[in-house]
Amino acid sequence: MGLAIGLGKRNPMKILAKFALSLALCFVVITSALAQSELAPGSAQLINPEDLVKLVQAPQGERPLILNVGPSLLYMQAHIPGSEYIGAGSDSQGIASLRRRVKALPHNTFIVLYCGCCPWSHCPNVRPAYNELHKAGFTNVKVLYIADNFGTDWVDKGYPTIKGQ
Amino acid sequence: MKRTVLVAVALVLAIGIYRLGIRPAPSRRGSLVGTPPGAVHSVAPGFVLQDLDGQSLDLSNYRGKVVLLNFWATWCAPCRGEVPHFIDLQNRYRAQGFQVIGISMDDGPKPVRDFYREFKMNYPVALGTEKVAESYGGVLGLPINFLLDRDGRIVAKHVGEVDMAVVEQQIQTLLQAK
Questions:
Q1: Residues near B74 by Cβ (< 8 Å), separated by ≥ 6?
Q2: How many CB pairs under 8 A join A and B?
Q3: pTM
Q4: Cβ separation of A121 and B79 shorter than 8 Å?
């Protein structure tokens, strides 16, 4: 009843427009905020293994700085050639090491972070590392999307690896 | 007031729409994979590793038992989820000759010791090395579980979180085998 009276006094089209605007605004804000923290599959912050391989093997073009933010025992067994070991992103020492590594870099440096310790939704390392770089103002950061693990989604597909530190 | 209600409704709807769009990546559960080394039907590579007390844990000492070799880490959520089930399996099948052995891929012993105490783990846990991981075909993602028969032969390899019903069935079959 109260609503009917209210609607009678106001233009329903105006209310509808305001509602739609609010909805759109909320959607944009929430989507961008959550995409940063959750790195949802398919989001623009991610790069697929096949695309990274193409980038790394391309004779020309911008080569990303590839940083491993996973556990060292996994990195030592196999990692992407040219990648650097930083430390686990879930660990405060790993994050401190990441801060040190990127401190002197321009904020538009193309950086790819990766881990691959466990299935994507369970990885404890890539999100904190990504959020740290985002917080530090880096604008060209991608995270390698590894659906299951580095063995299945990179090594088993025959993509290049090397071992050791 | 009405404006506040409208904004609140819009907020709830927006969250709902966003959440509907999220689909967690499918993970492989309990797949049986046979690739050398550490392949199914091969003899499990031997190792001597340090356990959490600094004592040697020699796989050969478990010959004659059915062994579940669990590569895991405290930071791995699916691994943590498996531990209570392994504790339960260890309790129920110990008397028949079943043994779980955990090999932690953590970078240091401290979190493993803390976890061990917190979860009241009832089976030995050793600290993994790159060498042992490679001898089992590489541990490039967790968890990975190997099931060994009483002769120390690898009978099953589970990459990703195991299906407990499947692994228990396999354990029962191996315990009954002569």
A1: B80, B104, B106, B111, B112, B114, B115
A2: 127
A3: 0.77
A4: no
